[in-house]
Amino acid sequence: MGPVPPRTRRRGLPSAPARAARKLGEIRRAQLITTYGVGAMIAVENESFLIRGIDSWDISDAPFISEPRLARQLGVSGFRMPPAPDPDSARDGVRAVRFPEMYSCPHCHQLQPFRRFNSPSGRAECSTCQESLVPSRFVIACTHGHLEDFPYWKWVHRGNRVSSGACGGQLTFRSDGTTASLRAVLIGCTCGVEEVSMEGSFRRQALRDLGIRCGGRRPWLKDAPAESCQEPPRTLQRGSSSVWFPVMYSALSIPPWSQGIAKLVAPFYEALKDEDPASIKSYVRIVKLLRHHPSYTEDDVVAEVAQRRAAESHSTEPVGSTEAGKRAVDYRRELYEGEYRSLSKPHPEVAEEDQEFVCEPPTTSLDALRSSHGLAQVMLVKRLREVRALQSFRRVEEPSPADSPMREAAISPAKPSWLPAFEVSGEGVFIRLDPERLRVWEEQPEQVRRAARIRENHDKLLSARAGDSDKPVPPSPATPRFLLLHALAHVLINEWSLDGGYPAASLRERLYSDEDMAGVLIYTATSDSAGSLGGVVAQGEPERLAASLRTALHRASWCSNDPLCMESEASGADSLNMAACHACLLLPETSCENNNILLDRAALVGTPEDPSIGFFSAALSA
């Protein structure tokens, strides 16, 4: 992927001639989805900026990404890669706006909006001291995504009923260096008020006690009016991960969308979607679309465009919030069921076709693993493509499936017809458990009890996060089957990271757990060919898989934090794990699609009191 230079807004009055946007720096396209997306802050040297909404992006040359199944789920017509213009050109790419607005000078200790320092053009320095300025360390945000500068004046003048700034003094910001805590960060004012430390500013009620309410500001959206918001604001560190949580969705490209006429038409769909059949056929002849594909006709192209157009119109039609929530749940289930079916069937490589999905069974017998470990099927996914899209973002609290729509911070002023996304290629191994053996195991009273304890805590959290929203609250997926598949994925990722040449952070899980699904896909996907070098596929060969399973289960049978880890009745964030900790099951956040919750090591190997309740207990004792 090419570099993406974020740019500042044009300056001057609206009627003034537009000035060339100042180039700030370069970031990768994928980072504009995962790390520095819309609404996120990015530090550039001694300055700080906020990535602007997608309505300000120049996407004239941004590649179109086709993934109809994911587009249907998210209610958009398609996806665009973030723009990556030539760094030497004057054209816009992704724009940014200065935030926070408050800066301080480390020499004279003045604390004030950036514009009052009268810095030279393109530099952030104090015009008096010629010292580099420092952006404010603190901001305030609410769970509805609003973001503002920290109210320093109100903090230091607590109890003063005079309106902000009316004292006539100059705010100061300094650190006395006595400790590394907030007690050493002092805010003062030249009006004579006593200096106040930042200690206590992170308490939940700290801002509310001072009468500070959320102002409903959305500075990442140009000219966006302030919204009415009753959520209490929270103080956050500018560089804290709680300032920006991306809400991302992904889908694997599976047949028929990953091959044949669908793959052939995908890059040209944007140019063809509004044309009549005659114009489509003319376009096909002009660009010689079928030159190297004699098996297809112009009528096939017309039919494919019509099919995509129908699916697109259905996904973008307006619906109420309740219907939208139900539709999202149904599409997600449809998304995973389609992938599960494709992963369960062979899709061999065809020499004359450019395929994005190749899935084949191992060449050697699986009988030993089937009898000893209860594996019904293993498929080697030698080629796969995944599309990851940024739909919105959250602040303060990490995303939850039950979040109220009010917590979905918008990435554009109006509902977008497209979303930023990027595509990655990779490989993986799909493992499906024996359904009959699994049904017998998941009815064990002890496993039902352990799963019910996690599910009860999770249901309470989901209901609390939903608030008063009319969006249906999804039930917790915490069943014995889900806990087993999730724990299996984690132990295999940890084991394969030691043996397969990939770090754990580059491996990902995808769980297929339902009444009719019981599988797990472990795969690696990167923006270049490094994700398809065969290191993960090799782990799926029966002999190597049997060895890695034995080793992984042996490691899982004892944790360095035992007996505390195994005997825990509730662990992890919000008590959503049982026997799981950083020493045994937890993974880097990039690897787990469930944020390291809903895990229980006992589902694999049982407990010291009753080792037989683990699904793999017999294999471990053999």
Structure description:
- Strand 9 and strand 10 (111-113) form a beta hairpin.
- The chain has helices at 31-34, 68-74, 152-156, 206-209, 260-265, 269-272, 277-286, 298-316, 321-344, 367-373, 435-441, 445-466, 480-499, 542-556, 564-567, 602-605, 617-621; strands at 3-4, 6-8, 27-28, 41-44, 47-51, 64-65, 78-80, 94-98, 102-104, 111-113, 134-135, 138-141, 147-149, 171-175, 185-189, 196-197, 234-237, 245-252, 358-360, 375-394, 418-433, 507-514, 517-526.
- Helix 2 runs antiparallel to helix 9 and helix 7 (277-286) crosses helix 8 (298-316).
- The model is unreliable at 1-18 (pLDDT under 50).
- Strands 6, 7, 18, 19, 20, 21, 22 and 23 form an eight-stranded mixed sheet that branches. A four-stranded mixed sheet has the order 2-8-5-4, with no helix packed on it. Strands 10-9-11 form a three-stranded antiparallel sheet, with no helix packed on it.
- Helices cover 27% and strands 20% of the residues.
- By secondary structure, the protein is an alpha+beta fold.
Concise overview:
This protein has 622 residues and is an alpha+beta fold.
**Whole-number average pLDDT?**
85
How many helical stretches?
Answer: 17
State the low-pLDDT regions, or none. 1-18
Helix/strand class:
alpha+beta
- DSSP summary, beta strand count: 23
Most strands sheet: 8 strands, mixed
Rg calculated over all Cα atoms:
27 Å
* Overall geometric form: globular
Q: What share of the residues does DSSP label as strand, in percent?
A: 15-25%
> Which bin fits the share of residues in helices?
25-40%
Termini separation: 49 Å
